[in-house]
């Protein structure tokens, strides 16, 4: 963890925000246990103002992202459609009973 913090501080000192820190983006040496932070594809320049779109892996998004603003996802091909955002929001409902079943998801307009 300390090595990861060091890597993130180094990025910050260079004006870079990684935006997708997760185990899959860490390379760990089996011999020395040194880590390297990989995959800056979602990265951005560090700024003081709020970021207007989500970048990274939704599974690692902070909860406040979902509470304080509409979910806006950017892909390599532009913004995700409204239907896709609606399905994601539905799947992430706080109450399990409000979430869609597999049948609901399968019949969702975004998939057709």
TrEMBL record:
Highest taxon above the source species: Eukaryota
Enzyme class, UniProt record, top EC level: transferase
GO cellular component, one term: cytoplasm
The protein's Enzyme Commission number: 2.7.11.1
Family annotation (PROSITE patterns): PROTEIN_KINASE_DOM, PROTEIN_KINASE_ST
Catalytic reactions of this protein: L-threonyl-[protein] + ATP = O-phospho-L-threonyl-[protein] + ADP + H(+); L-seryl-[protein] + ATP = O-phospho-L-seryl-[protein] + ADP + H(+)
This protein's UniProt keywords: ATP-binding, Kinase, Nucleotide-binding, Serine/threonine-protein kinase, Transferase
GO annotation, biological process: negative regulation of apoptotic process; regulation of mitotic cell cycle
PANTHER family, sorted: AURORA KINASE-RELATED, SERINE/THREONINE-PROTEIN KINASE PIM
Protein known as: non-specific serine/threonine protein kinase
Species the sequence originates in: Labeo rohita (Indian major carp)
Lineage, top ranks: Eukaryota, Metazoa, Chordata, Craniata, Vertebrata
